[in-house]
Amino acid sequence: MSSPSATALVIGGGVIGRACSLALQRGGWRTTLVDPESAEMAPSWGNAGHIATEQVAPLASLATLRSAPRRWHGFGGPLDLRQPLRQAGWVARYLRACRPARFEAGRLALRGLLAESLPAWRRLAQALDAPGLLLEQGHWVCWESEASARQGQAAWRSADIGTARCAALPAAGLEALQARLAVPLAARLAFENTAQIADLPALAQRLGDAFAQAGGTLRRARVQALQRDGRRAHAVTDAGERLDADLILVCAGVRSRALMAGLGLAAPLIAERGYHLQWAEHDWPELPPVVFEDRSMIVTRFAGGLRAAGFVEYASLDAPPDPRKWARLRRHVAELGLPVRGEPVPWFGARPTLPDYLPALGRSARFDNLAYAFGHQHLGLTLAAISGELIAGLCAGGPVALPLAPFDLERFS
Asked: Is the full-model pTM beyond 0.90?
């Protein structure tokens, strides 16, 4: 249980780090969030803005393995494995995680977490006094060929989509969508009980402002290492300064791997990178996010523009971006006839992904002051609010709403 003098140090200012920092500060910890100036490159702010309650099945599965060849980047798909020899260890762990028993355990664990994700976002949006940031209008999925439509619809209708629901897109929605496209659509599904963040920069600002107003401290620095001192950990910044706290929470995305390794803890994260293009000028109507499954691309209207996003690129964190990804997104947008004008702003970022596609959420049994919240893969934005609540409850020593044993980092020890 935190005392009025208990201190917390949160490493990482993506949406997970900011949500956890705010929850800890409001829970009675004197919290400092440590993050470098480059926080806008976190995948939190470059994703599709989708609150994906429907993505219950972990991507570590035999079904994903079977579909990998046709989704390969060289054949026009979204999947790319760069520097494969450097990723061999992660791939081996991923293959083990695809075994049916492990997949099923992961599915059940993720199902419970996702069931609480949207209610937690409602609470957080209200607490930020910004309910308009959360748009509960679902999302749409569509196909351009009859064959892929049959296969895709059957897959979604038989999948475990948790608390989400899907049905044929109503006629009014179809007319609004088809009128903006240069290609005919073969089929469309409308999902309910999913959501969208309307403005990701505004969300980042609101979280930061609420944290400051609650008394939290933001420190612009990069934590270069975590070091052991008996059963306690401390942080060392890039300037060589030592930072101590009663609680150290690691939310540093892909960089969490090296930080935890300094303490002798295995966190086998990979940089699973996504790309997007965003146009400030467009004539896209106020529609929910639209997934074009044949192109493995999602299109989202934000307050700041229209964003086309996609790709699953496994690479080293320091690998340069692949311009072919942006070129393909641009081609998809042109072929679809999306009503955009001018030059888009390109972006890429690294999702922090563990081999079993489950996050790491918990406290370390090997250290008295170490906790972690990272490895949320494609679901970082979706799970940010519930992760903050769970971490704050766990670190306060009280009961938590969900069992966290499936997300214990020791599963990789």
From this structure: yes
